[in-house]
Write a structure and sequence with these properties.
Blueprint (H helix, E strand, L loop, with lengths): L1 H23 L2 H72 L1
Length: 99
């Protein structure tokens, strides 16, 4: 009887790794594997999206600086042009009087 118990324990121990392999191939293990694969894919996609976002953000910051400079330049040009218009208007009045 003791020999039978010892032999049955040995047989069970011999089949335990096979049972572990069956557990790894179970539907739950397959789902876990698929989730892990999906997580890896999502992380890669997230990194790509983050890179695109950073590039776009940098573009927006540069464009904002350029537009700010253009507004300042345009304002200065406006003042110069208004002064030229005022001088031309005064010249017109002076020349009209002389005529």
């Amino acid at each position: 009887m003791k020999t039978f118990a010892a032999v049955s324990c040995l047989v069970l121990a011999a089949f335990a790794p096979a049972d572990a392999a069956v557990v790894q191939m179970s539907p739950i293990a397959k789902i876990i594997s698929m989730i892990s694969d999906q997580e890896t894919k999502i992380m890669k996609d997230g990194e790509a999206v983050q890179k695109t976002y950073e590039e776009f953000s940098e573009f927006c910051e540069e464009r904002s600086k350029e537009l700010s400079f253009e507004v300042k330049t345009g304002t200065a040009n406006k003042e110069e042009l208004e002064a030229a218009i005022a001088k031309a208007t005064a010249d017109i009045a002076t020349f009209t009087t002389k005529i």
